[in-house]
């Protein structure tokens, strides 16, 4: 009986330590969990903060974009008001309502300041803070509508304004073209002065005439086909001098160069005086005048025959307007000048020559040109640089392809070429009778229906199928009207100032003038007396 209580007590003593153990173990586990959770929170806080900051920035950017795109946003409405108000400012000024235009401009500035503040603090505008600005702008826009500044009126006024500006621009463009043409045709006072003084020198100085007579002793050179023959037809003394001087200075053998100059009777003595007073590195220079060519008469030359026609005289010389159908540049009488058309009679001007290089008086030579005389033209008459790199330099640009004669005989896409530096094989010319071809087309263009004017269109017809293309570096064009690639200028043998902006005129392109002026001796007394500088 005593053992049962003892057994009972013993059993109680064994359980008590187990309860304590499990309790302590649970507390330790709880503490461990708490510690781990706190460390996890400490480690995760920076990442959460960073993620939250980036998220806020992204959301903020999205809100700004939404503000600009949403039709209901305050920012969008204010921007629309500003755009409309700016249009009304223009109309108010056009209507001479300057006070209202000033009020609109002031309110536009207020609205822009409000938008700028919202953008700076990077929070969208609220209705309450923008209510006053929007209301004031709305009142002004309403007032504008009451003044008939509505959209329909605005569109009509803007259309009328555009039309008026287009008409004004057209008128100014036409005036500019006329004034530019007049400036290009006008003889500068300095050139006129030079011609007068040289003529006086010639008649007053027997020494000059004797110098010319001495040079005539070398007239055998004028017919020697082993030499390099160049021809220039011009009434511009200084321009012709630059052509001769630049050729001489850049020639490897200037003593083998012969220049044949043809001018008119007015400038004949002045031209002779100039080339008697100046030496050009041993170059031979001969001067002739048109009036000495007895075969050059109206019965033989179509251009001279056309000048006798009363209608032609009225077209070119009366100044009557033809309703602006013909650009002023095509009504320039210089296109009927025989000095321009003499290029089609070169074999008759120089009957003893077999090959000649033709140069315009608005060119500068900066390379030796002797290589031109060894070029094989392969049976062609004309050697020229082609200009059809762009489509507008093809035949259809210069000729009237609505005329059956042009349409039947010439390819509209045939490549154009340039006068100004041409190699002419006079043997082939005479054999084919190229001058006769020129006469044929000139006689069919009395009414100016095949082409308007100039020497290039009849040249394209005359030398059609008879032109050999030269390397483009021989002849660089455009220095009288446009920008030219500097590399082309550097490599070019002949630089052509074609266009109205001649280098001896005030309207010449300034950056290209030095290329021409370096061949003029401005210290020459007569040039100083005539104010050349």
UniProtKB/TrEMBL annotation:
Keywords: Cell wall biogenesis/degradation, Glycosyltransferase, Golgi apparatus, Membrane, Transferase, Transmembrane, Transmembrane helix. It holds the Pfam family Glyco_transf_8. GO terms for biological process: cell wall organization; pectin biosynthetic process. The chain crosses the membrane at residues 20-37. InterPro entries: GAUT, Glyco_trans_8, Nucleotide-diphossugar_trans. Pathway: Glycan metabolism; pectin biosynthesis. Its EC number is 2.4.1.-. This is Hexosyltransferase. It comes from Tripterygium wilfordii.
